[in-house]
Structures are given as structure tokens and as C-alpha cells.
Amino acid sequence: MTEEAQAIPVVSYARISADTAKDGHGVDDQHAVNDQTAARLGWTVVHRFTDNDLSAAKADVVRPDFEAMLEALQVGHLADGQTIKGVIVLVEDRLTRRPGDYERFVEALTYDEGRVFADSKGSKDLYNEDVESMGLFGVVISKMEVRKMQRRQRRSHRRRAELGIPVGGKRPFGWQDDKLTLEPAEAALLAQAVRDVIAGKSLRSILLEWRDAGVKTINGNEWAHRSLKLALWNPRVCGWRKHNGELVRDANGVPVVGRWKPVVTPKEWMAIDAIFSARTGLPTKVDGTVLDPRVPNYLLSGILRCGRKNWEDSVCNAPMRASANPRFSGGFQYVCPSRSMGGCGGTARNGAKVDEFVTEAVLAKLEERAALAGPRVGPWGGESELERLKAKQRKMLQAWQDDLISDELFFPENQRMESRIKELRADQQRHALQQQRATERRDDIRERWFSGRLDVMQKRAIVREALHAVVVMPAGKGRAAFNPDLLVPKWRD
Ligand SMILES: [Zn+2]
Known about the structure:
The model is unreliable at 1-5, 129-147 and 280-295 (pLDDT under 50). A hairpin with a 7-residue loop joins strand 9 (321-324) and strand 10 (332-335). The chain is built from 16 helices and 13 strands. By secondary structure, the chain is α/β, with parallel strands linked by helices. The strands form four sheets. The chain has a five-stranded mixed beta sheet, sandwiched between helices. Strands 8-12-13 form a three-stranded mixed beta sheet. It has four domains: 3-137, 3-Layer(aba) Sandwich (Rossmann fold); 146-294, Putative Large Serine Recombinase, Chain B, Domain 2 (Hect, E3 ligase catalytic domain fold); 304-374 and 444-491, no CATH class; 383-442. Bound molecules: zinc ion. Zinc ion (ZN) binds at residues 306, 308, 316, 318, 336, 343-344, 346-347. It comes from Kitasatospora cinereorecta.
């Protein structure tokens, strides 16, 4: 086998522009150095691509040979059929004229396996992502840009110095005057409230409990909807903090952990954040109470369906509603609405007894399911993409802070990554919420149901999880004894 046969066919690329002309390397010079590089590496230059930007030094100038080279790399051969396996340039920044050029080049070169690349310093593996971002370094940065970046860096250093250190004002509810040590009783209340909200309890219910228990704010006032919500939504409860509405994160995008003792875990706070963020779309009263006209006060209103056949021999199926009626033991009944309200008006049942029976059936069903199945929410699928993006962003940020890449390259790329990371984080939060709920559900459901800590909305959510509806079959004329067989649950799978 001859050396000739082993030589790797590559192309040489040279470019001259107002900038590159200053370093004294004309295009012939550049190609000559490239030839030497090729010889050193055992490669053979089979074609020369040359661009001259001197005549049209506009930002949008097309470099015909650069574009031709990218095409050749894509197909793997030159117009005459000569196979090419790589590229040599004098220095990497000959490739980078506009943001995106370098990425396009790397993409074209690595389009196929086994391609090679070198500049006068030696060969580089462009399949390696580390080197890919290193390629962004070869950019000229003006003095002005450097000064701008240094200012930015000083600001960010100052901010970093502030991180994790509690700032002025009164102590927050849950912590002592040093703002670091927990005030045990208050911290326990906060933690319980966070977990209750995650489990679906309303802020109203929690407020009523706190008022009953005489819990006051640190100023000695009654808790209000808004103050309670802000206290629970403050990332401080899990050791994080917000600045201008955004979580304070380190260069890795990881939220900075403060020095104070946390009350709940970051996962729990993320669940709270997801719940409150999702709610902000609903109309609110002046005091911040979310107005939701659909909130019913009875366990099964709307869940019970009338099973009576009407005169056309079709089933009524209207959602039954609750109405107060002192004639019944529990003080209310479930009734089919009147004809004018879309029902048949022909079915009514003792509310308390229906609640009791359906509750028992639902709890038994859920316990049976819990025994059969483990947690249903699997691990989040976006972890690796998020980690990869964060690492990439970290690398770029570092390069930019070290003045190695320009604003023009850094900002657009960083913004692109930032928005994708935001999407992923939102998705991660939703997932954390689901997972948290799944965990809560698996805890002894019966014990929680009768603990007095669940409000009607929470209980309805649990019922709905178990069944679509309960059909109430007609009981016949007169005041027959309550017959549970006339209640037919439609279970979910
Ligand atoms: Zn009906």
C-alpha cells in the first residue's frame, strides 16, 4: 500500500476581507499554509475554495465558494466527482462571518462519518460538541463590546454576592428574627398549607382553619387570601428566592439555595408554583379570591345522573343537583332538575345517604386499585435534553463572560436555548405536580378522607378519579327505604 492511497482528500479554504487582510495573509499565503498543514497530517489538498470579501464588505455578502464548499461537503464530493473527506483553513474564524456560519459548516462537515478538519494549529474533531462551541471563539470583539461585557460581569458579580443572603425588612412568617432559623409552629403551618394546596385544598379552607386557630401574620393581622397565597408562593419556603419575578439561578441555571432553613422541598414548591401559575387565568375578586362559578358545595352534585326513563322511553341522564330539604335526615336531597332546566324532575334521593354509600364505594375501589398498582406517574422524560441544554448554555455563557465570543453570536443563540429551557422547565413543573398528587393519593386514602382535612372540592376530585358518574335509578312511588342497589356507579378503568 502506497502513502498516496492512504492520503485523505481534503479541500483548502481561504478568505480575504478587510479584517483578514490586516494579518498579512493573502489568499495564496493561506492556501500555502494549508498545504503544509495537510502534508504534516498526511492529508492531500484536492481543491481550493477562495472567497474575496474585500469588494463587498457588507454583512449580507454571499461567499460563493464557502457555500459551494458546504454543498460539496454535504454530497461528499466535488462537482467533478472527486471525493472529499475534510477541510483545512488557516484559522477557524475564516469560516465565521455571520452568526450561524460556523454551525452550518460543522453540520455540513459532520454530515457523514469520518470527516476531518484542521487549521494551522492542528486537526480538530468537530463531531465532539465541546469543540463545536470552541469554534465560536474565533471572533473579533471590539473594544466597546469588551467594556460592555465587563460592566455586565461586574453587575452579575455584585448580584451573585447578594445571593443566599436574606435582605432587609421584617422577618418572614415561618422564620425567626435572624430570618434563617425556623419558627417551628409557623413553619409547620406553612408546610401543612403547602401540602394541602398540592392535595387540592382551597386557600379559603386553609384561611378559615388559620382564623379558627387564631393564627396571625407577623404584624398581628388576620391572614387574607392574598397574603396567604403570597406566603405559600414565595420560593423562600423551599430555600430559593426570586428576583424581578424570576428565580435566582446560578450560571448552570440551578436555583441558588439560600442560607435559611427551608420549610418544604423544592419539588413541593414547584408544585405550588404550577398550581398558582395555572390559576392566574381565572377571574378574581378584589381580594384575590378566584371566582369559579362551577364550585359546588355538595359531594355529588353533577356527578349523579338521573336514570329515569321518560315517556319516550329514553333515559333522562340529566346531572342531578343538590337542594336543601329538612325532610331528609342529612338536610338535603339530590334531585333531577325540572323539564325547563333540562331534566325530568322525577327523581330525588336522600343526599346524606347517597353521599355515604358512594363514598364507601369509591374508597373501596381506590384502595383496591392502590393495592394493585404502584405509582402511575413515571419519571420525567425531558431530563437529558434539559441537562444537555443547560450544559451547552453554561459553556456559551462562560465563553461570553471570558470575552471569547461576541454579543452577536451569544445573544441570539442564548435566547434560543433559554426559551427551550423555559418550555422544558414548565413541562417539568407540570410533571412534578402530577407526581406529587400521585404520591398524595397513595397515602392512606380512607384516613385522609375522614381526617377532616379534605374540603368538598378535594373529595369531589377523588370521586371523579374513581368514577365518571353514578346513575340514580328510579325508586318507585312513595317513601320507600333507601336502596343502594338503585345507585349504579360508572367506574373509570
Ligand atoms: Zn330525570
